[in-house]
Amino acid sequence: MTLKFMYKQKSKTKNRHLSARNYAINSQSNSQVKLSNLIKGLSPSWQACLPLACLIVLGWGYVAVAQTPAAGPTTAELKVAIDTLWVAIAAFLVFFMNAGFCMLETGFCRQKNAVNVLSKNLIVFALATVAFWAIGFGLMFGDGNDFIGLNGFFLGGADNSPATGEAYKGVFDGISWAGVPLAAKFLFQLVFAGTAATIVSGAVAERIKFVDFLIFSLLLVGILYPITGHWIWGAGWLADKGFWDFAGSTVVHSVGGWAALMGAAFLGPRIGKYQDRQVVAMPGHNMSIATLGCLILWLGWFGFNPGSVMAADPGAITHIALTTNMAGAVGGIAATVTAWLYLGKPDLSMIINGILAGLVGITASCAYVSIGSSFIIGLIAGVLVVFSVTFFDKLGIDDPVGATSVHLVCGTWGTLAVGLWSVGPGVYSWYGEALGPAKGLFAGGGFGQFGVQLLGVVSVGGFTVLLSSIFWLVLKATLGIRVSKEEELEGLDIGEHGMEAYSGFLKEGDATGFSEEQSSIGRF
Predict the structure, then answer these.
(1) What pLDDT digit, counting tens, does each position of 323-369 carry?
(2) Residue among 214, 196, 171, 208 nearest 399 (CA)
(3) CA–CA distance, 278 with 272 (Å, rounded to integer)
(4) Is beta strand 274-275 parallel, antiparallel or unpaired with respect to 278-279?
């Protein structure tokens, strides 16, 4: 009885297993039939794609299994990447300063010369790019001697950047301290070179021939600027003497200012600037865009000065940004007050130039001085620029935008300020024994650093005056550097470019009020 019962139980279990198996087989068969019907329902093109899709899926699966995890970037590689990004962003900011110069100079000049001023500011950076790539960068940073670089033209030659110090093996030892690729070094230095050439544009505005300005810009960026730059930033003889200029009060601004001064002197004043031995004001036609230009330049200076660290050092960048901003702000305030007291009105053009004067004045020392010292440096620069503008006017040097006062005078002041207020080694983390100037006079360091700074100012100024004078005189003797009297009265927009910036508006030349005799070219 028991055996019979057990047999029945086993038969039931077996039947259940068979039923489940048959169900599974039938289900699988049904699925296969459905899949087969689905495939058959596809078009021939889709059916042909199925094998390829299977191969792709199998390939992905194989790669996923066979691939070993890639090693992440090292700390050194990440540092190079971040430093390069910062240098590139700073270079873009400095490049945007070209827009600031365009707006500032155009607004300060008369409307009949607006196209000419815009054209010069636009084309000068294009020329600077080619000249600095072909010869300028090699003269400035290429290995050579203490006076001039002799390697690296067209960015050629050995280079293993971003290696630095003793690990660097290449022909650009003068800038081997920067731990970024060579392309980043060139890009950043290029925008500085373009700035030096742009400074000249404003001082010679409204009467220079367009072609002469183009030629002089090529000579300045390709030869003059790189040679003096090599003395200071290219490990040349002034650097060996201990001269320091962090971001270019002398290297960029004073060099551009000296070249601008000589250009304005050789050109002579604009027609109608001096009448009956009196200085006649020639107001700019659009102070709105001049103010916009000032604000763009102020913004660009946050790339100009902090970017010169050429590394993403948070302490250095923020400190330099604060000293830069403080000097610019105080320079604007000081110029406003000075113009109010000296000229009787808070002249907007003086406010603009006061801000720029403070920014130029702090450029050499922004990494080496305290924020309190930057206040004083900007204050003095703002006062200087007001008196400087009127001083050059009385000398008969006609500078429509005040470029010589802002860049030359305040660039010189800013360079000397390094020898007065630099804090010396051991105060800031980025400021070691061999990485900056000694203590300044007012920091308890004596006259040593000030004397070196004065030597640099005189040497660079003398060489720039000599070479730029040769350039201007050769151009004057061959092509003639000044437009005709008729072209100047009509406006360079028509005479040089055959177009107007404000077509349909009243021309300034139609309502100058100058008689034929009063409009003669001359000095005091």
Answers:
(1) 999 999 999 999 999 999 999 999 999 999 999 999 999 999 999 99
(2) 208
(3) 10
(4) antiparallel
